[in-house]
Amino acid sequence: MNLKQLAAELGLSQTTVSRALNGYPEVNAKTKELVLAAAQRHGYRASPAARRLATGKAHALGVVFPMESNVLLDPLYVEFLAGVAETCGQAGFDILVSPTTQAGELSTYRRLAQDGTVDAVLISSPRNVDPRMELLKDIGFPFVVHGRPPESDGVAFLDIDNRDAFLHATRFLIHLGHQRIAMLNGEDRFTFAADRLAGAAGAYAEAGIDPSLLSVDHAPMTVENGYRLARQVLARPDRPTALLCASVLVALGALRAAAELGLDVPRDLSIVAHDDDMPAFQPDHMHPPLTTTRSSIRTAGARVAEIALGRLAGEAPLVQEVWKVDLIVRSSTAPAI
């Protein structure tokens, strides 16, 4: 059934039916109830194009992903999108996932802001220098950031307290007697990696330990990179006695490297990882169970979408949330020998 047929059955004009379906305040409550009941009975749903014409809103959030990074194969990104989808589905919003190249990234954001297909965009993994946010600010288009923006003035965002998480994780290892710690961090262009490094360095400073004993490597957070970096640092004559891993994926690679080198975890090597609470990679089921800093990326995705929808509904004030992270001690850490 189309809009014309639905209006004819109800004996109302197409304009009235459209306005009732889209929640216009000038349509009285009784008419809205009548129209919504008929639409549900007949399974009627306005086309996105018609809805945009009627309301000026797309009822969709935009997400841009770089094709070179294959982020749709990244379990972290997929979990984040699952959380976004959960909130959008409950609110009757769609998600427009738009691919781009590195060279065309800003053009993609500009297009989304100008062609009316989305009402706001979500930005993931903010960078230390991030032209995406400057562009959207200049255009005046709504956006919400998952992560800590390099400049937070006037920017809605949700982040976990990465600095505090890795301060506590490093402090915990130091209390166990570890001083030679290797940090297998994310890419140094991202703000979360800088915050985590600041946290680890802060723990060294407060303990009065030579900061050169903390080694740091940066790479995308994959199992293979965790394996490669761990093999390198564990082959050193003054090998570290503990590893700080940017994710459970990195820790999986590090565990494999340690096993190949004949190192027992935790007797010879302690490992702490950040856990985004992914169902497919549960640290308490690993061998040994991993000590982690834990925060659900799926829950974060749901909340980021909620913040975006709140902005579109005109809710105030500006939301800037930083979530505390739990340190969960399991069997992958032990006193240094």
Describe the structure.
The protein has 337 residues and is of the alpha/beta class. It folds into three domains: 3-55, Orthogonal Bundle (434 Repressor (Amino-terminal Domain)), CATH 1.10.260; 60-160 and 298-323, Rossmann fold (3-Layer(aba) Sandwich); 162-295, 3-Layer(aba) Sandwich (Rossmann fold). Helix content is 43%, strand content 18%. It contains twelve helices and twelve strands. The strands form two sheets. Strands 2-1-3-4-5-11 form a six-stranded parallel sheet, sandwiched between helices. Strands 7-6-8-9-10-12 form a six-stranded mixed sheet, with helices on both faces. Helix 9 (191-207) links the parallel strand 6 and strand 7. The relative contact order is 0.12. The mean pLDDT is 92.
Question: Which features would summarize this protein structure in a list?
Answer:
18% strand, 6-stranded mixed sheet, 12 strands, 337 residues, Rossmann fold, alpha/beta, 6-stranded parallel sheet, 43% helix, 12 helices, single chain, 434 Repressor (Amino-terminal Domain)
Short description:
The chain has helices spanning 3-10, 14-21, 29-42, 48-55, 75-91, 105-114, 131-139, 162-175, 191-207, 223-234, 248-260, 297-312; strands at residues 60-66, 94-100, 120-124, 143-146, 156-160, 181-185, 214-218, 242-245, 270-275, 291-294, 320-323, 326-328. The chain is of the alpha/beta class and 337 residues long.
